[in-house]
């Protein structure tokens, strides 16, 4: 069975290590905050200028001056810091953020990512995504393995305008966990009940399968 | 307004000197930390052909979005402009130009502009449409693109508190782009919730030192929330 959005987020959260600073993009990545394993402490960075992002506020806590990068009302944890946008992107660009998790339209075998622009559709902007992929030490891309027409999103070369080049090393999809290295996708884990054959079929870029591929633990 | 006393009492004084075709740098992230009264004054003055440098362009009917209503904006320099139907219409009509700029690059362009640095290299945007036509240079084996800094004829800023010297502090994430924008305006105007006596703001806690600030005005703010999301138990 392909993973649900929440199950992808659960698998993402298993990558976090105690003491990591993590930036989570909008959508599935944000859900990963709900599944940080017991005994592991991570601090969430929100690129509008908040390190130590907390949960959503109660009605009484709602404050127009307290929002996250998705412009949603939010709270800060004890020990948080708040700063300006240049400082925030110094953290990101300077490689101080340990993990960035973000969605994508396409990723290719060279670690290129396209996530912000579909020609012919209205372009709304890249926000902080280009800075995040240029700066983070580890980037995890979360997306469905194929689009709703069955077309693979893991390609020999991205077809859409890029967000960043040679920057993606890990992908977690609804079907698989893959690493990107040496011009190929390397299959590391498969979703429970999903066959290697199905993953091969839905991966357009070069796929390396070595040995037995274990099922993911969630 | 005299000497170090930067307080003005009318919005006309606050935005005096703003003319057609000028560049205005605006602080704010979405609708958070935006100088609501200064934006309203720009609308009232009716100046046209403006280039606005701001992370976003407000929403329909609020924030910088109101400057679209009378087609006062010629060009937006922003990282994300997706919240605004009128913006979309004017963009598709060719009435409005947009220069999409990565968020961190935009912040650094303002910071560098205010700090007297004309350009800087960044890896952000290399190999993407943002890097097209820009100088590329390798440092330690990694390619970087040259980005030019930004300064404005005006900078419009929202702060929480300021004293008459123009020393400012911001509240929570309403800080965002405001401190960098404040450094990058030839004329920097700050709209605040509260004007305090000199000495009330601890010198070590000042976010924007008064040297960057030309005018301070006390405003009133609606502080509209773009996306109110509550904790599960409160929904």
TrEMBL record, chain A:
**Lineage of source species:** Bacteria, Pseudomonadati, Pseudomonadota, Gammaproteobacteria, Alteromonadales
Q: Which SMART domains match?
A: CoA_trans
Q: What is this protein called?
A: CoA transferase subunit B
Signal sequence annotation: none
SUPFAM superfamilies linked: NagB/RpiA/CoA transferase-like
One Pfam family from the UniProt entry? CoA_trans
State the family named in the UniProt similarity comment for this chain.
Belongs to the 3-oxoacid CoA-transferase subunit B family.
Instruction: Name the source organism.
Output: Alteromonas ponticola
- Say if the entry is tagged with keyword Transferase: yes
- Protein origin, superkingdom: Bacteria
**MF terms per GO, please?**
transferase activity
Q: Read off the InterPro entries from this record.
A: 3-oxoacid_CoA-transf_B (IPR012791), CoA_trans_fam_I (IPR004165), CoA_transf_AS (IPR004164), NagB/RpiA_transferase-like (IPR037171)
Alphabetical UniProt keywords: Transferase
Automatic annotation (TrEMBL), chain B:
Say yes or no: keyword Transferase present.
yes
Gene Ontology MF: a single term: transferase activity
Classify the source by domain of life: Bacteria
Q: Which UniProt keywords apply?
A: Transferase
Q: Which SMART domains does the record associate with it?
A: CoA_trans
Q: Which PANTHER family does this one have?
A: KETOACID-COENZYME A TRANSFERASE (PTHR13707), SUCCINYL-COA:3-KETOACID-COENZYME A TRANSFERASE (PTHR13707:SF23)
**NCBIfam families from the UniProt entry:** pcaI_scoA_fam (TIGR02429)
Tell me what this protein is called.
CoA transferase subunit A
